[in-house]
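ok trying this again, last paste got cut off
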Amino acid sequence: MERQTIAARRLMLIAHDSVRFRLELNENPYGPLPSVHRALTEALASANRYPEFLPHRLPQLIASRIGFPPEQIVVGAGATGVILHILQAFVTSMGYAGEGSGATGVVLAGPTFDGYPLLTETVGGRPVIVPLLPGGSQDLAAMAASVDDRTGVVVVCNPHNPTGTRLHQHELTEFLDLIDTRIVVILDEAYIEFAPSDQRIDTAALLATYPNVVVVRTFSKAFGLAGLRVGYAVAAPQLAARIAHWQVPYGINNLAEIAVHACYAAEAELNERIRAITGERDRLSAALRRFGYDVPDSSANHVFLPLRDIGHARRVTDAFDRAEIRVKSYPTGMRITVGDTAANDAVITSLAGVGG
C-alpha cells in the first residue's frame, strides 16, 4: 500500500510538471528581477549561517519603506504564515467536541483564498462564508450581518481573490463602522501593487481610525518571491505584539531579507514588470469579453472567467486540457493567472472556439 501511495504521488508530480502553462497559483510569470537574482546568488555563500532568532532587521526595513514604525510590522512565512499567526492570536479553538466559548468564528467572503477556511480550521475556528455578489464583489452588508458575539476575525480582500474586484475607501470605512472594535478585521492586500496607486486604500488613515484593522501584504505576487515565503502585517502596536508572539524562531530566512532589500532598491525595474503584467491582464480581459464572457474588472494579476453551467464548464476545461493550461476552478467559474504573452495567447486561442 505504501509503495502504491508513493507511486501515485510520483505520477501526480510528473503530471503537474508536464503542464505547459501553470496559471492556477497567481504566481508572477517572471523570475526574480536581475538585480535581485544577483543579490540572492551572492548570498548563497552564507547559507550555512542561521538567520536572526526572531526577526528584527526585516520589520525595520519594511517599516522604513512604507512609513510605519517597526513596532507595527510583523513578518512571517508569506502572507499565509502571517495569517496563521493572526488566527492563532485572535481565534479561540472550538475543541474536540466542536463546541467552544469565545471568539471561534471567522467571517469571510466565498469563494476566496483557500488558505482562510483551511487555516481557520487548523486553529480550531469556524469559517463563516458569505457568498459574493453576482458581479464578483464582496457582499459587505451580508458580511457585517454575519458577525455575532462568537466572531473573532473578519476577512476583507482588496483586490479580491479570485475575482480581482476592488473596494473603494468609503465602502470599506462604512463597513468598518459596523464592526465592533473588539473584532479584528484582516485587510488582505496581497495584490495591491497591481491596482493603480490612486485607487488604493489609504492604509495609514485607516489604521489611525480603526485600531482593530490588520493589513496583510506579501512579496509573493508582484515582487516574484513566492518561493522565499515572506509576507508581513501592519497593525496597531498592541495587536502587532500579540501576533508576533506566535512567530517561530529562525522562521524568516536570510535570503528573504536580502531579496526584499534588493527589490526595494530595484523600484524602477519592479514598476516596469508590474506594468507588463497589468497590460497583459487588460489584454486578456478584453479578449474574453469579446468572446462573450462577463469578466469582472480586475485590479489583480488574474482574471475571473464566469461559467454558465456544468456543460459550459466542461467545454472550457476540455479546451484548456488540450492546450495544457492549468487554472483554478470554482463552482461558478475559473480564475486565470495572467502569464507571459505566450501563456495569455494560449488562453485566448483555447477559448476562441468555446464562447461565453
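PB: full thing came through this time. The chain has two domains: 19-32+268-352, 35-265.
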